[in-house]
Amino acid sequence: MIPTPDFPLFLAPMAGVTNTVFRQLCREHGADVLTSEFVSAEGILHRNSRTQEYVEFTPGERPVGVQLFGADPAHLGEAARAVVDWVQPDFIDLNFGCPVNKVVCKQGGSALLKDCPLLERVARAVVQAVAPVPVTAKIRIGWSAATINAPTTARLLEDSGITRIAVHGRTKEQGYSGVADWDVIAEVAEAVRVPVIGNGDIASAADALKRRRETRVAGLMIGRAAMTSPWIFSEIKAAMAGDAAAFRAPTLAERWSFVVRHCRLEVLRRGDERRAIHGMRARLMAYSRGMPHGRHLRERFARVESVAGVEDLAAAHLAECAALAP
Fold first, then answer.
1. How far apart are the first and last CA of the chain?
2. Residues whose CB is less than 8 angstroms from the CB of residue 30 and which lie 6 or more positions away in sequence, other chains included
3. Residue whose C-alpha is closest to residue 22's, from 324, 276, 226, 323
4. Environment class of 128 (CB within 10 Å of its CB; exposed 0-12, middle 13-18, buried 19+)
5. Distance, CA of 186 to CA of 222 (rounded, Å)
6. Residue 139: which of 177, 104, 172, 178 has the closest Cα?
7. Over the stretch 202-237, which tens digit does the pLDDT of each residue have?
8. Is 0.90 topped by the overall pTM?
9. What DSSP designation does 113 have?
10. Second label for 26, Cα 20 to 30 Å away, from 9, 188, 234, 286?
């Protein structure tokens, strides 16, 4: 496995979010290990232009992995080998956790939590196809509250040669609602020898310290909180080092500077400003959470067309907030 800090912080792979630009920004703010958005085995084998966007990364993103999903062991093994030959990632990650119906209906993602023999065959096929490149996996705690099987699933994956397991503390049926069950994550960490990375409801340094203290997880994976505040990695690292005062939350002006920079980087990557900013709208709405008058901002973001438009919104918002300050 690629060397990482004693207790690494992972950026969770998120479809439509964790492209190369966002990953680089999170690395700047302290994320230790990065993973691509998930990509289908079939997409890899066809090597279409969209797939190339999913798997591209820069040297500065290492250690970085490419996450694959699918349900055909032979195809996944072939796709994993192709990815290794194509972009040389530091590891291959297998998605056994996505709850989205368009993935599950093809027997991908969390659907395999209901078919552990197939899950095991997929894992073994990929491990054998790319050896000695490490293969990791991400799972949920089970398909439903009545079928929680993460410790069993984790043992099967370990026996199949998987070298690290990330566990999201919700079932497929929960999606992203409810509360992550860290008791089950703790059980998984006790059940296997490979590193277990805990994922779910880590929204602050206090959350991170609590989960590190109360479980035997080997690291933490941050998803939705990073969409709103990529600097959460720096906040957590300062707290884990016992120097919480070393982290200073960005000011509103600094947050806007970050947002505008993200937009510019997306335009530079895509080479098409309108397409890039349209693609950024959901990211902009996430960044607005926690900002004053966020609802009003989100209404404006839904119509923004250019970097200049984002800059105008920033200037207007900062002026409005300054005028209202005591």
1. 53
2. 9, 231, 233, 234, 236, 237
3. 226
4. middle
5. 17
6. 172
7. 999 999 999 999 999 999 999 999 999 999 999 999
8. yes
9. G
10. 188
- Smallest Cα–Cα separation from 17: which of 227, 202, 263, 273? 227
165-171 and 135-142 strand pairing:
parallel
3-state secondary structure of 221: strand
Our answer to whether residue 263 is catalytic in this structure is: no
Sign of CA dihedral 104, 177, 186, 38: positive
Task: Please name the residue that has the structure tokens 């969409």.
Answer: 227
* CA nearest to 119, candidates 90, 154, 67: 154
Enumerate residues 6+ apart whose C-beta is below 8 A from 177.
Answer: 170
Q: Collapsing DSSP states into helix, strand and coil, what is residue 188?
A: helix
Q: What is the mean pLDDT of residues 158-166?
A: 98
Q: Which amino acid is at 302?
A: A
- Compute CA distances 24 → 34, 55, 58, whole Å: 9, 14, 8
**For 9-246, which CATH superfamily applies?**
Aldolase class I (3.20.20.70)
Cβ within 8 Å of residue 148, ≥6 positions away? 141, 142, 171, 181, 184
Give pLDDT tens digits for 295-307: 999 999 999 999 9
Specify the 3-state DSSP secondary structure of 141: strand
Structure tokens at 154: 């984790």
| Domain assignments of the chain as residue spans, ordered by start | 9-246, 252-324
More confident of the two residues 62 and 54:
62
Residue with the two structure tokens 């709103």: 228
For 92-113, b/e burial (b = at least 16 CB within 10 A) is: bbbbbbbbeeebbeeebbbbbb
Taking the C-alpha atoms of residue 182 and residue 91, their distance in angstroms, rounded to an integer, is: 26
Of the candidates 200, 153, 147, the residue with the CA atom closest to the CA atom of residue 176: 200
**Catalytic position from the list 98, 116, 263, 321:** 98
Say what the pLDDT of residue 325 is: 74
